[in-house]
Design a protein that fits this description.
5-stranded mixed β-sheet; Dihydrodipicolinate Reductase, domain 2; Rossmann fold; 7 helices; about 250 residues; 6-stranded parallel β-sheet; 2 domains
Length: about 250
């Protein structure tokens, strides 16, 4: 039986994760961790002092995830991270810490299998197009921008091509930010935040005479749960560091 703790248990994703863990016969929900609520532990340390934790699933906030992950790895707790907002240097630090402590750590910007396939398809298409941009659309309660999915997609695409603004003319923004943020190898990322969306991303590729669009839409948080469970089962059986669900699919 895999003993699972959920950090951010009272959030929208946290509640869905808790229900999914309870529904799986090979898992036991041993701790709900959240600063709010009467039936939760207030910190990972409080929970780990009280119960044995095999894997902690973190869906909290960008401002707390790095410290949460460091605590887990330094205390022999394997961790599955769904919270986005980690910086490149923080991811590298956790990678090295995971290896040093021989403790599994899996970071997934997106747990939806469809979204991961979208990212993989975008990487494949990047071999054949020298121009590309990303538009990501989320609800207006998402605090980080661009999304972790968009950043990871751009990183994967950049492994296949050196510049995605080939033959673009010199540009002047009359309104700052109109061309979006510039990420890996000049891939522009545009972030939309408004009610009505949950999580969507569209990758646009262009060349003379053609446009390719690769899009994924999440309409229910249940779409992430298969990926979360896949990550938990992988992490409990391995002590490796994994960045991206595509590496274990």
């Amino acid at each position: 039986m895999i003993k699972v703790a959920v950090c951010g248990a009272l959030g929208r994703m946290g509640k869905e994760v808790c229900n999914t863990v309870l529904a799986n016969n090979d898992m036991e929900l041993v701790a709900k961790i959240d600063i709010a609520g009467e039936d939760t532990y207030k910190s990972i340390q409080d929970a780990s002092n009280a119960v044995k934790i095999d894997v902690l699933i973190d869906f909290t906030q960008p401002k707390s995830i790095f410290e949460n992950a460091k605590f887990c790895l330094n205390n022999g707790i394997k961790i599955v991270i769904g919270t986005t907002g980690l910086k490149d240097n923080e991811i590298e630090y956790l990678k090295n810490l995971s290896k040093e402590k021989n403790t599994g750590c899996l970071i997934a910007p997106n747990f939806s299998t469809g979204a991961v396939l979208m990212m993989m398809f975008a990487k494949q298409a990047a071999k054949y197009f020298d121009n590309a941009e990303i538009i990501e659309l989320h609800h207006n309660q998402k605090k980080d921008a661009p999304s972790g999915t968009a950043i990871k997609t751009a990183l994967m695409m950049s492994e296949e091509n050196e510049d995605f603004t080939t033959d673009n003319c010199p540009e002047t923004e009359t309104i700052k930010g109109a061309r979006g943020g510039i990420s890996y190898n000049n891939i522009h990322i545009h972030s939309v935040r408004m009610p009505g969306f949950m999580a969507s991303q569209e990758v646009l590729f262009g060349s003379n005479g053609q446009i390719l669009k690769i899009r994924h839409d999440s309409t229910d948080r249940k779409c992430y749960m298969d990926g979360v469970m896949l990550a938990v089962r992988h992490t409990v059986n391995n002590n490796d560091f994994v960045y991206g669900l595509e590496n274990i699919m």
